[in-house]
Amino acid sequence: MQIIKIENLKSQVEGQQILKGIDLTINKGEIHVIMGPNGAGKSTLANVLMGHPAHEVLEGTVDFLGKDLLDMKVDERAKAGLFLSFQYPQEVPGVTVENFLRTAKKEVSGIMPMMTQFNKDVKKQMADLNMDEKYLERYLNQGFSGGEKKKNEILQMSVLNPKLAILDETDSGLDIDAIRVVYETVQKLSNDNNGILVITHYNKILNYIKPDFVHVLVDGKIVRSGDITLAEEIERTGYEVFKAENAAKT
Ligand code: ADP
Ligand code: MG
Ligand code: MG
Q1: ipTM of the complex
Q2: Residues in domain ABC transporter (predicted)?
Q3: For residues 12 and 189, what is the distance between their CA atoms, to the nearest angstrom?
Q4: Dihedral pair phi/psi, residue 168, rounded to 5°
Q5: Ligand nearest to the CA of 168
Q6: Which residues does ligand 1 sit against, CB inside 6 Å?
Q7: What's the pLDDT band for 171 if we cut at 50, 70, 90?
């Protein structure tokens, strides 16, 4: 069962074309990893899918659970079950983590969750992530370390239970123990009903999550797809080989 089908997706930002024809299909139960050099367009792909207003779609289609994703507003995309963990989570002074999570859950599910049960569930999920409960009372991301912000993103993911979660470099800024906790949690959150797209630079996460597919994104295009052995190849060769292959084709 297909969750998302991206075909020939092209986009520009500030008059510059970034995505140059992305094709990617993610089915239920699958974990996909996208790797690629800096500036390849990885975050752009995530932002275009989420509907970031800076990015203009030039061409292509995106089917999300039978609907035209590109035709939906940002909040409609979230309600339909799309979740993006940002590379740089924003600080939101005045809104506590607890309030944020509860409101976000209500926005996405249409029902305000019951306080006591919700608290119990969230605290359990925080314990799994090695997060202190007192963060519930803190303002969202304010004064959080890089690692705490990223854990908080995964906490949101576990609360919102999305159909497709896109995690953009959730490993950056994390120490090795936090990386393990975060990606073990992501692996646990993977089930037969959802899809997960992990964007990363960091091969070590493959010790904790088991992707079904690995894709290499170079210069706005997926230049190679394979299984986990492709990540091992990247580790050995770096991206230069893939860049050269791509340049030879164009
Ligand atoms: P990656 O995540 O693969 O490192 P990005 O998708 O963040 O790369 O960026 C791809 C290119 O698009 C870069 O050249 C970047 O500067 C440019 N870009 C991305 N977002 C914006 C934006 N909002 N305004 C201007 N340029 C942008
Ligand atoms: Mg699976
Ligand atoms: Mg990026």
Answers
A1: 0.96
A2: 4-244
A3: 33
A4: -95, 105
A5: 3
A6: 13-14, 18, 36, 38-44, 54
A7: confident
